[in-house]
Amino acid sequence: MSKRAFSQLLRTANRPRVHGNGRVKAQIARESTDATKALSEKISSEIKQEAAKLEFPTIITRSDHIQRLSKYYSPKMLKSIIAAEQTVTPDLWDKRKKAKPLFPLSYVDDLAKHDPFYDLPKMPWTDFSEPHQPVPPPSDLPQTVPPDLMNTDVVEAELANNRGISRDYMRRLIVRPLVRKLVSNVTRLGKIRSFYSLVIVGDENGMIGIGEAKDRNESSRAVMKAKSKALRNMFYIPRLDNRTIFGSLENHYHGVDVQLWPRPPGFGLRVNHLIHEVAVCAGLKDLGGKVRGSRNKMNTIKATIEMLRNQVLPEEIARARGKKAVDIKKTYFSARK
Questions:
Q1: Of 334, 333, 332, 281, which is closest to residue 308 (Cα–Cα)?
Q2: Domain boundaries, the chain
Q3: CA separation (Å) from 100 to 4, 105, 106, 111?
């Protein structure tokens, strides 16, 4: 019989039975339970000490087992223990009903032994909830993002040569990645997913640019490509008194209806959040607007930039009417300061 079966039989045989109520009976049951626990602990400690002395495990005979139990139990109790041991055979013990834990393992493992993969740590543990903990060592995982991803020296040098823009000017520009999403191109081979990004840049002094780009691997790469395209496609937005637009504007662009109105000094930017970013990059300070219809971000930005770029200027009105630009400005724009 195994050690675990013997301990279970010992607990069931020595469990006190108290009938009725009363403090005396409860105290007797408590004392007998404590005595049984003490005896079982003493027996288990002796068995462990004897097993530690032996180099190889020995087989305990039936007579030795009964003789050892007779030291601690009365003849009546010893008789009940022997009867219980004869009832539980090794076959019944092997066919016993196993426990059903909440998260059972799919295999039977010997938890008394250390597993080299699950039980041994790969790296030293750092408990951040305790103060004065050492800095964890760097991870040996491979770096997916290349270290020179944010290096814009090549793009800046190319723009400086082609467009005549200095690097200091490009570094002072405001960059706003307004749209970042995952898109799919459906082909006969399946869906090809890629990252899409829409970026606007501006110097807060009338110059603004918009760029769109995609990348198959990284969203940050799509942002960098869109930024470089926006730098190449910069144009000027005309402004009245360097703060607002010249007149009311309205544009319908792919289901998006955008309306913009000039406002007096100190009015601020009371517009859609996307139009607000465009106005900040362009240097507009007083503007009112409304977006109706679709709320698509990409179309809202494109409709706004198209309106701001195609404003009707006083010079064009004067040329169409055959008058001087000074008279047109004095008549229509003198009070709007």
A1: 281
A2: 3-93, 151-236, 239-337
A3: 18, 10, 12, 16
What pLDDT was estimated at residue 97?
79
pLDDT digits (tens, 9 = 90+) for 206-225: 999 999 999 999 999 999 99
Contact 155, 170 (CB under 8 A): no
What kind and span of H or E run contains 157?
helix 153-162
State which H helix or E strand residue 101 sits in: none
Quote the DSSP letter at residue 71: T
Q: Mind listing the pLDDT tens digit for each residue in 169-183?
A: 888 899 999 999 999
CATH class of 239-337: alpha beta
pLDDT at res. 62: 76
pLDDT classification of 89: cutoffs 50, 70, 90: confident
| 3-class DSSP state of 26 | helix
Decide if domain 151-236 falls under CATH 3.30.160.20: yes
Instruction: Determine phi and psi for 235, rounding to 5 degrees.
Output: -145, 170
Closest CA to 181 of 168, 197, 158: 197
